[in-house]
Write a structure and sequence with these properties.
The longest helix is centred in the last third of the chain and has 24 residues. The protein has about 290 residues and is an alpha+beta fold. Helix 2 crosses helix 4. A six-stranded antiparallel beta sheet has the order 1-9-10-11-12-8, with helices on one face. It contains four helices and twelve strands; from the N terminus they run βββββββαβααββββα. A hairpin with a 4-residue loop joins strand 11 and strand 12.
């Protein structure tokens, strides 16, 4: 598993907005694990909003070490070091919002763990778009039932493609501008001009209704190449994630894609586009 942790190199292309909805001042990070890992798409896959209540959780006790490693929970508390640690009196999962300093967005999260350790109250959560994070309890605003009921039933496109090429060759196809035009015809046949689109975008893909980019990241994380593009359009948020993983058995590379969320009306169209785009990436990578 790779992990972005508290990496601060994400480039910001938008003035940071107020986070008064959640917390008025940035706090010192806690020391109990569960760091910012948006690339942990195997451990915590993306979840469509209608399925948020169905994720695995532990209630009424602290999780075992195994449960913090198999996607059931997140933060392991060594009770020999913290004998007074205990779960908070909250039934999991809970839906909330959390201002993500990295993506520059107030994101929707599924809280799967809440624990009291010494004087700290800490929550572990999974992002709807995949991956995990943690925060102090007062950094999260839990949604009211009426707010949850008003959420649109959006869905993520999740793709996995095996490519017979090493990561560096696929990375070149994903990021080198020389491949943009051949890939653009798949997701934008009309070459639609988008004034707000950052011409230096780190990946040869764009969602035409994604809005303004709030942050971009592209790097090799512990041997796995990872790209994340976050954007906003009004109250709608969008993310595109591309992760390269070595497949030791087949000696190939797995390209994992998570994009969305999309409305039900747009989902099938975007699914077809991303499937065609991924197959073209595969074709170009295997030719090199």
């Amino acid at each position: 598993m790779s992990c972005l942790e508290n990496n601060k190199t994400i480039e910001n292309n938008k003035v940071e907005k107020s986070i008064e909805k959640v917390i008025t001042a940035k706090q010192k990070p806690h020391n109990y694990g569960g760091w910012y890992c948006p690339d942990n798409l195997n451990g915590f896959p993306a979840v469509n909003i209608r399925n948020w209540k169905n994720v695995n959780v532990v209630n009424g006790r602290l999780p075992s070490k195994e449960e913090t490693q198999n996607g059931t929970s997140l933060i392991f508390v060594d009770q020999k070091k913290h004998p007074n640690a205990k779960p908070l009196d909250m039934k999991m999962p809970k839906l909330g919002r959390y201002y993500n300093e990295n993506s520059k967005k107030e994101e929707l999260i599924i809280v799967i763990q809440a624990v009291k350790i010494a004087e700290d109250s800490v929550v572990g959560f999974r992002y709807l778009n995949g991956g995990n994070g943690s925060a102090r309890l007062n950094e999260v605003r839990f949604l009211l039932d009426a707010e949850i009921e008003s959420l649109s039933p959006t869905r993520f496109v999740m793709q996995s493609v095996q490519i017979d090429a090493p990561q560096n060759k696929i990375w070149e196809v994903l990021t080198n501008p020389q491949y943009y035009e051949v890939l653009e015809v798949i997701f934008d046949k009309d070459h639609t001009p988008i004034p707000s689109w950052n011409d230096s975008s780190k990946v040869n893909f764009r969602y035409l209704n994604g809005g303004v980019i709030t942050s971009e990241f592209a790097a090799n994380l512990y041997g796995n190449h990872y790209i994340q593009i976050d954007s906003e359009l009004g109250d709608s948020q969008y993310v595109a994630k591309f992760l390269l993983l070595d497949n030791e058995q087949s000696k190939s590379t797995e390209l994992k894609i998570v994009c969305g969320p999309y409305s039900n009306d747009d989902f099938e169209t975007q699914k077809d586009i991303l499937n065609s785009w991924a197959l073209k990436v595969k074709e170009l990578s295997e030719k090199k």
